[in-house]
TrEMBL record:
Protein name: Ferritin-like fold-containing protein
UniProt region (Disordered), positions on chain: 1-22
Coiled coil location: none
InterPro entries: Ferritin-like, Ferritin-like_SF, Ferritin_actino
Residue intervals of the Ferritin-like domain: 29-210
Top-level taxon of the source organism: Bacteria
Compositional bias per record (Pro residues), positions renumbered to this chain: 1-15
Length: 241
């Protein structure tokens, strides 16, 4: 699971897919459509990226492992697509507003080698999962269920963490390089996630209750928790976040 990347806040906010489709959904459901649009394109991009990265695996076992993860990402994409179809929204329409931003994120965080690809998959999938789960707590039962289903089938951490730990234990210089890479990745990911609140102006009102100051405080708490979770995952690899 990946992608926390809405369009740049400097560009005009496009009409939501729900609005363009004329579904008559209320503001909450229009936000949910945007949320699933981000998720769908993130999963599709992850499938493409992992499929490509698998070719550069040092062993056939590694190639098979990344291939299996790519298949899982595509299954997630299909799950989100089916959920959007149930809302009467075409998945391509839902994804389109976020395509340029997600593609730009991947260009800015292009891995230098196979090990950086592993770290990117490990970091971005975990942060995205934490972010979507946190959002789902404030949303409807159907949204929580589909996010929980995707989380329950996620295999990235279980497969990538042991492989990364094995590689890092054999190469101190690689450990230093991947620690720096992990810090860059988390910074990019959290910056993109924060843009959700800027681009979709109604986001704070949907997720949080209380005054504007309360929104800012709770948003800060959310991102602090995402950062703490990332730090724990880096520590489990023997790295400093």
């Amino acid at each position: 699971m990946t992608a926390l990347h809405p369009p740049s806040p400097s560009s005009p906010s496009p009409a939501s897919p729900a609005e363009r489709a004329g579904t008559g959904l209320g503001p909450l459901n229009q936000f949910v459509v945007d949320l699933f649009g981000v998720m769908a394109y993130g999963e599709l991009s992850a499938f493409e990226r992992l499929s490509s990265d698998a070719r550069f695996s040092p062993t056939l076992r590694d190639r098979a492992a990344l291939g299996r993860l790519a298949v899982t990402e595509f299954e997630h994409f299909e799950m989100v697509s089916a959920h959007l179809a149930g809302l009467g929204v075409d998945v391509e329409e839902a994804m389109r507003p976020f395509q340029a931003s997600i593609d730009s994120f991947h260009e800015r965080t292009r891995p230098a080698d196979w090990y950086e690809s592993l770290m990117k998959a490990y970091v971005i999938d975990a942060i995205s999962g934490d972010f979507y789960t946190a959002l789902a707590e404030h949303l409807d039962d159907d949204t929580r269920e589909i996010i929980a289903r995707i989380q329950s089938t996620a295999e990235q951490g279980g497969l990538l963490q042991p492989r990364l730990k094995s590689a890092l234990s054999d190469d101190p210089r690689l450990a230093s390089r991947l620690a720096l890479w992990g810090r860059r990745l988390v910074g990019e990911a959290l910056t993109q996630a924060q843009r959700v609140g800027i681009e979709r102006q109604f986001l704070g009102g949907l997720l949080f209750k209380g005054s504007s100051a309360d929104h800012e405080r709770q948003t800060a708490q959310l991102f602090a928790q995402l950062t703490r979770n990332h730090s724990r995952r880096m520590s489990s690899l023997g790295l400093t976040a």
